[in-house]
Each structure stands twice: as C-alpha cells, then as structure tokens.
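Let us work through a complete example step by step.
Step 1: write down the sequence.
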Amino acid sequence: MKYVSEPITFTREMNGTNVDLIIPEGFVKDLHFSTKEHLMLMLRVVGPDLAKVADFFEDGEDEIFNIKTVDAVGGSVINADFILTDIYMDEGPNLSVDIDIEVPMVRLILDFLMK
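Step 2: predict the structure and record it as tokens.
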C-alpha cells in the first residue's frame, strides 16, 4: 500500500539555520492521522544516507518540524508545523560475518502533534 504520493520533506531548525531532509516515498511504511492533530509516521531507510536520517531526528523530541507531502490515500496536501513528541529509532541489522548479510537500515516511528 502506498502512503504518500510524493517524497516527505522535513524541515527543522538546527544551529540557527533551517535544514531540510527529504525522504523518498518508498521509505515511508505508514502515515496515519489518529486525530486531526496527531500524526504517526513509520519510516524504513536503507542505503548510504541512513546516518544522515538518524542524525536529523536524534535529540529531536519536543522540537518543531515542518512536514510537507501528499497523502496518497486521501490525496490531501500536508504542509504544517508539528512537534515531535516521541521517537523510536532502531538502527540495524549490524554487520556480521554471515554469508546472508542484511543491508544496514534505520527504522523510525515518529509521533507528532500539530503545532
């Protein structure tokens, strides 16, 4: 199931400047509004930029993020400021000596409240 029809752009103020992070729609595993004010996102990012994603959201609780995308289910445009209330981050799997090495990835569950 497709959750967004465009990449998600997150904007966050870091060290006095606005920093953008663009997540391609293929990495979005869930986008859910439980209420008009509560947004939950689940992301799974693989590839060379996963450290950039982890660093962007690390220590981001209680910070303001602008989120821009288009909801694929309802077709509505999302462009609003949200406060990150909770984050779950799982970096893995770890590299090992197994023959069946899995690709390193970061899994994120992000809970936001509309500002």
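Step 3: interpret the result. The mean pLDDT is 87.
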